[in-house]
Amino acid sequence: MSKTSGTKVFTQTEIDHLTQEEGRSIVVFEGEVYDATDFKVTHPGGPKFIDDYVGKDMTEVFYEEEHTKIALRMLKDMKIGTLETSTSDQMSQDTVTSHSRMGEIEGEEWRMKVDPKLGTVWQVFSNLNHEEYNNFINDPKHLTRPDDEHRMFATSWIEFFSRTPWYHVALFWTPIASYKLYEGSFELTPLEFILTCIFAIICWTFAEYALHRFVFHMEVYMPDNAYFRATHYIFHGIHHAFPMDPDRLVFPIIMAYFIWNVFHVIWINTLPGIMVNTFTGAFIFSYMGYDLGHYYFHHSQPLKITEYRKKYHMYHHYKDPDNGYGITTSFWDKIFGTELVMNKKKEN
């Protein structure tokens, strides 16, 4: 390995050694060398898409997949050097880099107004105006070590309670939903019980869509006010700003419990009394499927059956946050004209 003007220059042999002998996930992009070892486990598309190009040049496929500025920033943070090339290779590389988009991520000083390590809620409240806030949350910051790289609050004990591991959802809601279904099974006939469950699932998918579009994404119409920005950030903005933070993926129990109580009052006043328990239990289980599925889409190599749903949701985060509000289904997106067009090129 040699150095030129302080930049490490890697030969292909050295890259092969790092990948084969040391198990590093080294990739080449536009003649530069990047170490994606830590990044690949949190890659939005799953680690397979990195593994397929370990030790190889990924420039062509990177542009074929229409990556945005967000991906360029991630790459910049992973750079470890430059690939040594022959004269003929260099001529080919000059052609590639002449069309490089890396210059697109220069001069973005607004991104420096919030330091993720110092408590982001207060900085969002005090440092960002309305336009800067929208830019900040719709420009995902990728984390490879969330516990070290990001805090919501500077105060440690508040920060501790701001985190919600995914399994809290299952531990808290499963007994409640199970009991409601148990009670409901004595109030309805088997056919009524099944039909009520199906009705509850359909209602949840609509509630999921409506909450995501009109409440979680209220940044598009909320007042230009620091308190609104901070509140929105706590509820959902943080998830778009740091979409791979595992402790900010499922809904905090206290907030979910408040929303459930609102829904429960509606159900009691609109549904026949004998349906309420069954509907409640099925609705909660549907919510659990959504929240745990949401975590799975962000932190898994998906099964074939769920691959499209993961890609659809990642497209919402990284390319088109103004569409694609359905997580478990695209049905309501199709009905209300917000379905994602997956091959649509959209710059951030």
UniProtKB/TrEMBL annotation:
Q: Which UniProt keywords apply?
A: Endoplasmic reticulum, Fatty acid biosynthesis, Fatty acid metabolism, Heme, Iron, Lipid biosynthesis, Lipid metabolism, Membrane, Metal-binding, Oxidoreductase, Transmembrane, Transmembrane helix, Zinc
Annotated signal peptide? none
**Which example biological process does GO assign this protein?**
fatty acid biosynthetic process
Membrane topology classification: Multi-pass membrane protein
GO CC, alphabetical? endoplasmic reticulum membrane
Q: Where are the transmembrane segments?
A: 193-211, 249-268, 274-297
Which cofactors does this gene product need?
Zn(2+); Fe cation
Q: How is the cofactor bound?
A: Binds 2 Zn(2+) ions per subunit that likely form a catalytic dimetal center.
Indicate what this protein is called per its UniProt record.
Fatty acid 2-hydroxylase
Organism ancestry = Eukaryota, Sar, Alveolata, Ciliophora, Intramacronucleata
